[in-house]
Amino acid sequence: MKPILFVFLGGALVMTAANAQFGRAQTTPRFSNATQPPADQIRTVASPLLEAPAVSTANSSLPLQDVVLFSSGVGYFGRSGQVDGDATVDLLVRAPQISDILKSLVLFDAKGHVDPVTYSIQDYIAARPTTTDLNIDPNSSPGAILRLLQGAQVRIERQSGTIEGRVVSVSTQQIKDGETLRTVESATILTATGMTTIRLDDVLSFTPLDRGLADKFAATLEKRANSLTRGLDTGIRPITLHFRGKGRRDVRAGYLLESPAWKTSYRLVLAPKTKPYLQGWAVVENPGDEDWQNVNLSLVSGRPISFIQDLATPVYIVRPVVAPQIIGSATPQTFGPGYGGQNDITATIPSTNRAIIGGNNGNQFGARSGGGQFAGGGFGGNQFGGGRGGFGGNNGGFNTAPLDEAAQAATQIEIQNQVDAQATGAQQGNLFVYAIDTKVSIPHSQAAMVPIVSENVDGEAISIIQSQNQIGALTAQNGFFLRNRSDLNLQGGPIAVYADGIYGGDALITNVSPGESRLIAYAVDLDLVIRLESSDEDEEIIAINSTEGTLQLTKKSTRVQKYAFRNKSSASKVILLQQPNEADWKLVDPKQLYEKSNDGIRFRLEVPAKKTLDYTINWEKPEVEVVALRELSPNQINYYTQFSKIAPDLKAKLLNIIALKKKANDLTIQRAAQENSLKDISDGQTRIRENMKALDRTSPLYKSYEAKLQTQETQIDKIEAEIDRLQTAETTARQAVEDAIVALGNTPQQGADGVKKVVPVSPTPQVATPRAMAGFGF
Hints:
Blueprint: H1 7-10, E1 26-31, E2 45-46, E3 64-70, E4 74-84, E5 87-94, H2 98-104, E6 106-109, E7 113-119, H3 122-127, H4 142-148, E8 153-158, E9 161-177, E10 180-191, E11 194-199, E12 203-208, H5 211-229, E13 236-244, E14 248-258, E15 263-270, E16 277-286, E17 292-301, E18 364-365, E19 373-374, E20 383-384, H6 412-418, E21 423-428, E22 431-436, E23 440-442, E24 446-456, E25 458-466, E26 472-474, E27 476-483, E28 493-499, E29 502-509, E30 517-524, E31 528-547, E32 550-567, E33 573-579, E34 586-587, E35 593-596, E36 601-607, E37 612-628, H7 634-640, H8 648-692, H9 700-744, E38 749-750, E39 756-757
Parallel strand pairs: 3-17, 15-28, 18-20, 25-33
Antiparallel strand pairs: 1-2, 1-5, 3-4, 4-14, 5-13, 6-14, 6-19, 7-13, 8-9, 8-12, 9-10, 10-11, 15-16, 16-24, 17-22, 17-23, 21-22, 25-27, 26-31, 27-30, 28-29, 31-32, 32-37, 33-36, 34-37, 35-36, 38-39
């Protein structure tokens, strides 16, 4: 297959888009007076993007030769023709398309030079507001417009007469009109005889009396009217291409414009005892007014970056406002200390950029027609060979047999024999190109379906079941596992499936690169009854060890899923079961896994005809739980000593820690009891002393209180001494617990082989969390 090269794929002009309505462009050549040709040599050419009357391309100077449509919504249009001497060609485009032309236009003059391209910016200048404009909105009422003239002298023509004066104010008021109220505007005018108020619904016209204000008023209204009527204009604007040279010679032009994205649709034919057959069609639309006559059509699949940038509208930079410099009295100034050596002062020499228009340093295009100049800055002389759809290249077509008349037969062999793919595919960098092998003609405002794929494919018919791990009945779908063993990139699109000679259903696929596989589902499989019977989970501790004052418990969770498949048909069925991929769960038998995808994980099994198959999937999930011994009670620690997986020496140390914790806790309880007793005595003494304040010091009750206080003071001394002893003993006991926990270290554990082992532990064990997985075979 010949290489396919496009100037926009090899250079810096790939990623452009448009923001224009699809119309038609038209080119009109013009010549200088020195080389003015006869009138019959001045010809026009239509491009696919303007709505002026269609111009015959057979006699045009730059007829449309190449159309390259991208799936990203842009199209490249290449033109070529001949000019004589110094010539100009008007490329007529709609105003919104000018930015796309400025962003993507490429010009080529094989034996001459390309001079600057010119176009008018009058539309943009007229639309730019100026400081002299009045703020008149298209929806402004007469009162709103008159309010802009507040304070000015005006002449107002009314049905009842003329009034002149200065506008004082404009307001609205409610008036009764029969049974309803309506709002009317009114203006207060200062006349020579005094103030008067008039209703504006009686006004026929008003005019500013100041000549300068009247001119400003008229100019603003004229500009607003022009902006409103601009939408009635055809919008066709010329972009003038200038070619300079001698004699008749070939010139070329190419540009990108917004185009409908080409689409694909497929037909998959499944028949017994024959290989699956895939037929693909490209849907191409020409919404413009120019017929595409025998153009080189290429369809590009990929996602080049496309964007819209307004290059046509003049950009005005907002400059800062700087106040006039006023020199005042000098004020004292201080300076900081200096340090370091002498500063090197390097003069900055501005670089000079020189655009090369038609120079010898530009890109050179065309493999057969010789070198030429690229209109633009020098690109170091990159060379682009000619080829299908390539700018500046010759018509390097792929000549194959023309498309036979499509048959209506329903069998695979008949379809395959009567439909030939009319495209040759090739990888172009990161893009994939379908170059149509024959010339294509599509009348304006018409569309066409072009066959681009016609070949046997690999794959197998399957039944697809998608489970969400919910107990209950599931639905199966008839599907096909498509394997793209070809060198073609299958662009995403719909697939109409014909199975066993009849329509089977519709499916969708995303882009399938060479070597990839894809599942498609096209109908509900009524011959399969599926149910997830159970999904039981359990958990066990498989190892316990200690490290740095903690217990590390290694757990294993298990899940057992039981599916039941009943095949009611008379043929065996291959089933692809898909369910979510929970990354922390692992298959006990990895051989059960068929493949992974972005959608989940898949299992493949086969159910015999008229049989029921039970299918079990066993999962396990390892987890690590870290328990801080210092925060556990003796009963909680005792819980972990009951597990059979704990080593005897670790169990003994834990039992010792339990005893030490209990001793420390008992001392804490005793100390708390003594402290409560001390508090009770203190509270009683406070009550006695309050009572003694009201008694005579010589009374018997007072004397009794004194004796009791003396006895309690003796008790307090003993209790405080006991509290001190208990606190010391408790501190010692707590330290013994801490020493015992620290002494645990990495406790060896009994292994399955009877040898004591130290289980390696991560400093911060964590349970695995689900994450997205890269897909294969999807």
